[in-house]
């Protein structure tokens, strides 16, 4: 299915109208966890409501799964998956590496998606026919790098502390094999993979709304996204994305130890 880029631009626009005025504005931050810190802001909540209104008006028979406001009509073959601010920790810290994620699944497969970073004026999207960038420097098609060897790869993860127990040892062994390891940036790292700037992004414990929008952006740019055991990534879990199939297999082999 081909999704109109204009519709994705409209989604990015209504979300930005809610997020940008609140960015670096020192607004209230609520915590969704009693025994930890999982921040949510008014920007998260209002941006998702704006996105839902647009989807409901344009595609009233489609389902929606959102991080902040739950699910509706999930029995539909077409389901939109929304993370209004992926990287809320970056958002409340004033760092412009958060993004609005909106993806479309058809019969459980991610086929289109967008990542909007309105502060930098960047939109990364996949419309079913390719992966694209709009922003500073002008529009272009996205394509992953052709890196095949870990020794030549730049990798990202949110933080190694997310890897627990034996998995941390295996992650450290993987990291020792890459050329450069960097941390943080949430969805922005996955966008940079699609843009040909980095080669591997590895993050455990993702939710569907953390990854669904990014799958088609990476895949339609030539990359591959799976769980650590090679399964589909649409339901979230422990996720590894790579620029080429060969690099993906090398990363998986390194994780296996």
Structural topology:
Layout: H1 5-19, E1 29-31, E2 39-41, H2 42-58, E3 63-66, E4 70-72, E5 78-86, H3 88-92, E6 99-106, E7 109-117, E8 122-126, E9 131-134, E10 140-141, E11 154-157, H4 166-175, E12 180-183, H5 187-194, E13 200-206, H6 208-211, H7 214-219, E14 224-227, E15 237-242, H8 245-256
Helix pairs in contact: 1-2, 4-8
Characterise this structure:
It is built from eight helices and 15 strands. It has helices spanning 5-19, 42-58, 88-92, 166-175, 187-194, 208-211, 214-219, 245-256, and strands at 29-31, 39-41, 63-66, 70-72, 78-86, 99-106, 109-117, 122-126, 131-134, 140-141, 154-157, 180-183, 200-206, 224-227, 237-242. The chain has 257 residues and is α+β, with helices and mostly antiparallel strands. Helix content is 30%, strand content 29%. Strands 4-3-5-6-7-8-9-10 form an eight-stranded mixed β-sheet, sandwiched between helices.
